[in-house]
Amino acid sequence: MVMVFCSLAIKLGVAIRGVLITALLTWIAYDPNAAVITPEAQGSIKFMFAIVFSIIMLVSLIPLLGFRLDEQRVAEMEQEIAKRAQN
Amino acid sequence: MRRINKKIKSLWGISEVGFSVMSTMETTFLVFFLTDVAQLPLGISGVITGFSALADAISAVVAGIVIDKVSFKVGKYRQWLLYCPPVVTVFFIFCFTKIGGDVMAGVIIGVGYVLSHFIWNIAWTANRNLIPVLTDDPGERAFLSGRIAVGSSLGKIIASYLVPFLGTAFLAVFSGVTAYTVIAVIACVLYMICYFIHYGITAGYDTEVYAGKKAVTFKDMAKGIASNPHLIAILLHDAIRLVAYYGIAAATSYYAKVVLEDSAVASWLLIMFYAGNVVGSNFSTTFSKRIGARKTSAFGCIGCAVFMALCYILPAQTAVIAVCMFLAQLIFGVAYATSTPCAAPTASGRPARTPGAWSWSSAPWPSSWAWPSAAC
Fold first, then answer.
1. For the segment A22-65, what is each residue's pLDDT rounded down to a tens digit?
2. By the CB < 8 Å criterion, does A81 face chain B?
3. Hey, where are the domains in chain B?
4. What region, left, alpha or beta, does residue B350 occupy, with left being phi > 0 and alpha being psi -120 to 50 degrees?
5. CATH architecture under which domain B6-201 falls
6. Do B312 and A46 touch (CB under 8 A)?
7. Is A37 in the B-facing interface, judged by CB distances under 8 Å?
8. What is the ipTM of this complex?
9. What pLDDT digit, counting tens, does each position of B156-210 carry?
């Protein structure tokens, strides 16, 4: 169960990454054929590369706040599962 | 008692080198190919990468079901290693072509992406599922899993160097698109050879006929997830941090071209990026045991964000950026392997602080749902 959905998380990550990069490139009016590389273009790509993905990395911590399993809770869960199995 | 033979001891894991070269070519260079080499409009590039990857996500589930349901007369898993790679090759090459106008080219690339992924998901899952079939011994299983991980890392590093290097070298002979098509052919041939080697060295294994085994349904899985907030939290965390991870890898080509004004240095930056991840991954278990998988994951993400942000502040020089990327991935690598230890107790009741005690081969779900971190 976990593994299929972990796979989905990875593939979702790849999908969002693809859309995000092309959206950002559109936003900064990226021109792959530009004869001259402007400081503005360099600044925008630098921002995307270094800052945008750093922010996303930090945003990933928010769902982690919902993960509150400790060993005591896990032990309780094990007991519940064992009881269910007996019944 | 099943035990691995000498050939398996020597060559197991090579499949992952081939697979990883091919998959890294796609995860790291496809977006750049679409926008800068094939020069498709950004909207079409976004649709291709977004929708195709979502279709791929669905196909991964279907691939798991296929593996569970289908058995051959001569075994269950090995034959996939023989049948799938040639088909993958045909469709994967289409991902790096430009045939017809922009829309037509986009459709062909998208179809190639979805179909190649669907088939490689089957082969990849079958390959992983061979491990418990090859040996009963937990030590040998750990050895085989470890070799797979090493192969995967090696493949990423090879692809990081090979693709930009060959891309530049082939430009002297071919057009930009053709150069990438030829690289895709090379990657696919390597993938096929590596998988065929796995097929060859496992001859005599996986001969049991599987019939009437009850598989867990997708509905059961969805129900289990929906009723498990901890698991949802972990999966969301994993998905978002991987947006950043794959995003940095894909954005490196743009950074090299526009900021460093030298596309060729992308290879060195990516080698440092993946090498840092490999080194960091080795410390994952130690950290998880000491501070818990959750804190390890948070530490890895924060550390990675800090060092990547430094790339914005520090001078844009290749050596400086390479070191920052290495350190960012060194720390992220520590967190990279923590999803399984975090997720395992949510499904099986095992504590998150003892990841070493967990192994997917003994997990309470079908073995065909093996840990898919490399199957992107």
1. 999 999 889 888 888 889 999 999 999 999 999 999 999 999 88
2. yes
3. 6-201, 218-354
4. beta
5. Up-down Bundle (1.20)
6. yes
7. yes
8. 0.86
9. 889 888 888 888 888 888 888 999 999 999 999 999 999 999 999 999 898 875 5
